[in-house]
Description:
2 copies of one chain form a homodimer. The first copy, chain A, is mainly α. Chain A has 2 domains: 3-83, Orthogonal Bundle (Arc Repressor Mutant, subunit A), CATH 1.10.10; 94-173. Chain A contains 7 helices and 2 strands. Chain A has a two-stranded antiparallel ribbon. In chain A, β1 (53-57) and β2 (66-70) form a beta hairpin. The first copy, chain A, is elongated, with a radius of gyration of 21 Å. Chain A starts with a helix and ends with a helix. At the A-B interface, α1, α4, α5, α6 and α7 of A face α1, α4, α5, α6 and α7 of B. Chain A binds a DNA duplex through residues 1, 3, 17-20, 22, 34-39, 41-42, 45, 61-66.
Amino acid sequence: MSLPHALLTSIVEKPCSGYDLARRFDKSIGYFWHATHQQIYRELARMEEQGWVSSTEVEGGRAGKRKFEVLPAGRAELRRWAVESSAPMKLRDDMMVKLRADAAIGPLGLIEEFERRLTMHEQELQTYKDIEQRDFSGAELSREAQLRYLILKAGISFEEGRVQWTREALATLRQT
Amino acid sequence: MSLPHALLTSIVEKPCSGYDLARRFDKSIGYFWHATHQQIYRELARMEEQGWVSSTEVEGGRAGKRKFEVLPAGRAELRRWAVESSAPMKLRDDMMVKLRADAAIGPLGLIEEFERRLTMHEQELQTYKDIEQRDFSGAELSREAQLRYLILKAGISFEEGRVQWTREALATLRQT
DNA sequence: CCACCCATGTAACTAGTTACATGATTTC
DNA sequence: GAAATCATGTAACTAGTTACATGGGTGG
């Protein structure tokens, strides 16, 4: 279970409120670890209980706004977890189930849904490539930037694979 | 939620017991939709309650062994679900979180874990390629076989991407 | 003054995991 | 006759989703 560690990482990068975290999880870090704001608030409460983070009311902000910071115990936990070996996420892709159902009980008319997916993956890919242009087109990258670039490249390669595969799937579905 | 539909598909392909399904979910269909035997038994009970499947005691089998079959209502549900539009699974990859943590709080020593992962992805890729050789090297493929091949190719392309990316990640981690 | 965004949460539910339990049959 | 595998499940827990609730601040 990595949500607390994703949160710790995000807060280490930049201390902020639960709300800010939720928004960050709608982009950057959320591209590879999704969470809703309800999960985030619940997890933050647990982490504070365990002494991994502390929160302080923000002066001059909106009423009730809190800012979270990572405590030494939180950093230690992050280090401990990082080198721990773990199993890769299990794939879950309903399009594969649908294809298999189509193979089993005749043509079901999956073309529209595949077209929708193709558009989505193309858009996602474009988003990643825009970020690449914006953030990583400089000549020399620091270690930190190289690692962040690596993460982005995983996303790009994944979406490229998806786009290509979806096109192939559409071709097969159309010709048969 | 697709577990019941993955089960329906698997039972349509070949009626069988919960135990058989659990084993099938450890290979073929489980490569893109994982489930434990506890989940499977629970879901089968629900599906029987809803009239999607029926079970009969197997004569001559082990005591208590039941065989599930898909009822017309189950097929109808599968058809309904197949053309319904759905959101692609959200990615969740803890290696990305670890890389980002490494970028944020200094080198943590991720090389070993990446090496382990590389081996796993290489093995998985090999497994898929063996299946490709065994099942899809004939010249003419039926519509059904083409669709099943498509699913396998998604797995191959995914693992190839992973292997390549993991090698790149290792190179970056080693040089910095 | 109304709509929208900021900012926090609670409650109820669904899905998935881990641990435990039981007994029959086959294989060595 | 012991160990492995077949075959079923229950119970307890953890994680994730969906729906609801509340109130302040900002911009038109």
